[in-house]
Amino acid sequence: MDLGLTLGPLRRGPADPTFRTTPGALWRASRTPAGPATLRVAQQGGAANEVTADAWGPGADWILDRLPELLGAADDPSAFVPRHRLLHTGHRRRPGLRLTRTGLVLESLIPTVLEQKVTADEAYRAWRRLVRQYGEPAPGPDQGLHVMPDARTWAMVPSWDWHKAGVDAKRSAAIVRAARAAARLEEAAAMDLPAAAARLEAIPGIGPWTSAETLQRSNGAPDAVTTGDLHLPGIIGYALAGNRDADDAAMLELLAPYAGQRHRAARLILLSGAAPPRRTPRMPRGDIGRL
Questions:
Q1: Which pLDDT tens digit goes with each residue over 189-238?
Q2: Residues 245, 152: contact at Cβ < 8 Å?
Q3: Quick one: 245 exposed, middle or buried, by C-beta within 10 A (0-12, 13-18, 19+)?
Q4: Computed from CA positions of residues 220, 223, 229, 233, in that sequence, does the dihedral angle turn out positive or negative?
Q5: Residue by residue, what is the 3-state secondary structure of 187-240?
Q6: Above 80 in pLDDT, residue 288?
Q7: 66, 98, 121, 248: most buried by Cβ count inside 10 Å?
Q8: 269: burial class by Cβ within 10 Å (0-12, 13-18, 19+)?
């Protein structure tokens, strides 16, 4: 198990206030059903490949009880059978890649909604500002971590603070609706993929892209392939068939041999770096908070 590869998708940008790395350890601040918690996980090398963890706060027991799933104990990498040379090489080079399962839906859903149709930098900036402003300092040793706000607080963020954070009305409304249905959405963490996706997509403003990106993290869903992405179809099309103009339909056709493991296949392709050369300018960065 590679700690960085496994937990890396939970980090929302290099200055994520809920995630820190220190020499030999990863730190996470989470809002669990039992309350805020800070988790420190360290991996020891050698034959034993031991992982040690400490936790603080009211949610410490909850998060430690679920540590094995967070580290991919429920994942089965052996179920993946590479059928392309690129994936065979990637799978062999990254034996420590496991799919994390947090068991927390809102924690992954809200930053994913913030990433809808904007650059990553814009979404990360909004996440940092809102968590620091409306969250709370994480329990335990001071690492500068913050726990994200609870559902009620998300639902009460005023319109002007969404605007100052650079979040448009469509995304903020989707987050508010999700926060008001938080209890129902958290139930999706125990559902199979189709039922969980249907539960999330019943909220206006949450579509297949958002539900897949959320369930990849909250449920550790190995088949939750992301559709509706601006870049992913072209990357997968280029990597597997030399087709940089692939759309969702072509991407799904290429990933069909990996049914049940399509998210893992996509993740290995992204880790390989096999992306087509850029031929258009980067998406312009914006900040509606300055208007």
A1: 999 999 999 999 999 999 999 999 999 999 999 999 999 999 999 999 99
A2: no
A3: exposed
A4: positive
A5: HHHHCCHHHHHHHHHCCCCCCHHHHHHHHHHHCCCCCCCCCCCCCHHHHHHHHH
A6: no
A7: 98
A8: buried
Note whether 99 and 75 are within 8 A (CB): yes
Q: Per-residue pLDDT tens for 93-105?
A: 999 999 999 999 9
Task: Give alpha helix (H) positions in 120-207.
Answer: 120-134, 151-156, 159-164, 169-180, 182-186, 193-201
- 31 strand-pairing partners: 36
At 224, list the tokens.
């939750």
State the DSSP H helix or E strand holding residue 41, giving kind and residue range, or none if neither. Answer: strand 35-43
Count of residues making up the chain: 291
- Residue 20: what residue type? R
Mean pLDDT confidence for 126-144: 97
Contact of 239 with 54, CB cutoff 8 Å: no
Give Dmax (Cα) for the chain. Answer: 56
